[in-house]
Write a structure and sequence with these properties.
The complex is a heterodimer of chains A (about 260) and B (about 70). Chain A is α/β, with parallel strands linked by helices and about 260 residues long. Chain A has ten helices and eight strands. The longest helix of chain A has 19 residues. The termini of chain A are far apart. In chain B, strand 2 and strand 3 form a beta hairpin. Chain B is elongated, with a radius of gyration of 12 Å. By secondary structure, chain B is mostly beta strands. Chain B has two helices and four strands; from the N terminus they run βαββαβ. The chains are: A alpha/beta (about 260), B mainly beta (about 70). Chains A and B meet through helix 1, strand 1, helix 2, helix 8 and helix 10 of A and strand 1, helix 1, helix 2 and strand 4 of B.
Amino acid sequence: MELKDIIKPENLVYDKSEVQTDTIMHYCPGCSHGVVHKVIAELIGELGIQEKTVGIAPVGCAVFAYNYIDVDWQEAAHGRAPAVATGVARLNPDKFVFTYQGDGDLASIGSGEIMHACNRGENILVVFINNGIYGMTGGQMAPTTLDGMVTSTTPFGRNADLNGYPMKITELIAQLPGTSYVTRQAVHNAASVRKCKRAIKKGIQNVLDKKGTSFIEVVSTCNSGWKMTPVAANKWMEDNMFPFYPLGDLKDGVKGEPVSKN
Amino acid sequence: MAKVKGAVVVDKEGCKGCGVCVNECPHEVLALHREVNSRGYHYSYMENPENCIGCINCGVVCPDTCITVYRVKV
C-alpha cells in the first residue's frame, strides 16, 4: 500500500489539538514543557472547556505559555500564581482555573503561596513541573536539585551541609487538608504521557466538581541545563530522579482529610 | 489477523530534531534526516515506512506536536 493511500483525512488517528496554537514553541529540543502543554491543550479540547478556562502563567521557561494554549491567561509575579489563581477562581466560580509552575517558581520563591492556597483548598489545578534546576536562567541549583547533582552554582555537586537537602514539596502538599488529589507523574515515554494525561484529566474533573485543590507534579527533564541529549536526559531522569521522586498518587481523597494515605 | 498499516507525517519546519520519537518508535520506522530544516535541525522522517503500524507513540511523546499519524486496516 502506498503512503498516499494511507495519508487521508478519514485515516487520521493523531493530530494536534485545536486548542493548541500553531506557534512554534520556544522551548529547547526535547523539553518536557512541550509535552505537558500538549496534554493540557488536548484535555481542554476533549472536555469542551476552552471558553471557561483561565490559565495562570508563571515566571520561568513557561512564561510564554499563553502563546501556545488558546485560552484566557493571566501572568503572575514570580511564585505568586496560586495567589492570583485564588483571586480569579473566587471572583469567577464557574471558571476552570489552573496554574502552571516550575520548581524554581513553586518550590522556591512561591513556596508560601502554594502552601496556603492548598491549605485553603482553593478550587484550582496546579501543574508543577519539577526538573531539579532553574532552567531559564542558566541551570542554577533549585530547592529540588538532587543531593550531589552538578549545576552551574554547585559545580562540585549539591552538598547538603552547605546547600541544604532536596525538597519533596509534593509530599508536603499531600499533608494539607485542602487538597483532594496529589500525584506525581512523568512524561518521558508514551506510557507515562498517557498516564499523566489521565491524572491531569482527573485533576480538571475535581476542580470542575469543586472538590478542592488538585496538585499534579510532573518530574521533567531539562536537557540543556543538565547538558545532555534529550534521550540521555530521559534516561538520567529514570535512573536518578525517580528513586528520590517516586511516581504515583500521594493523596486521592476528599478535601478535609487531614493527612495523606501514605 | 487484520494487518494494520500506518503513516507518520512530520512537520519538517516544526521539528527540532530532539530524537525522542526515534527512541520511542517500537518498529524503528523513524530516524533523523541527514539534511537540516531552515532552523538547522536534523528533522525526523520515516526511514522505514513499511514497518509503521500507526501506534501513535511518536506523536504522543513529541514535545513540539509536529507529528500527525494515519492508520488503515488492510
